[in-house]
Amino acid sequence: MDIFIADGVYLSSNSIDLQAMRAQGAGGQNVNKVSSAIHLRFNIHASNLPFRYKQGLLKRKDSRITEDGILVLKAQNHRTQEANKRDAIERLVSLIRAAGVVQLPRKSTRPTRSSVRKRLNSKAKHGIMKQLRGKIDLE
Fold first, then answer.
1. Residues 79-84: contacts with CB within 8 Å, 24+ apart?
2. In the chain, what are the domain boundaries?
3. What is the pLDDT of residues 53-85, one digit of tens each?
4. Could you tell me the fold of the domain covering 2-100?
5. Distance (Å, rounded) from C-alpha 80 to C-alpha 38?
């Protein structure tokens, strides 16, 4: 089963390693018996993603990506293992989609004449107000 990322970009499900584990936190007796949390491991280098998606993921300053290029996600928000699997895969897909977006370079612009004039007038007013705060000479 392939996972849809974008037009013409699919992620093979065998490139994702899902492991069930016990969830942390409160949950009563059930939390100690049932392995409902999911640990998702995704090897970026070994995946079938296009180069720009891999580069986008590896350039991110994300603590979930190891030095070896393995993305680790932990899903434990839901009570069932299936819901946590879906959650982990959805989070992986959204991360990959965000990495595939190409950031356009910023187009530098100049401030308008009126905005420059307003700024300078405001500075002049502020300077006059500060001068008026000085000590008053009574002589």
1. 79/36, 80/36, 81/20, 81/34, 81/35, 81/36, 81/38, 84/36, 84/37, 84/38
2. 2-100
3. 899 999 988 899 999 999 999 998 888 889 999
4. Double Stranded RNA Binding Domain (3.30.160)
5. 10
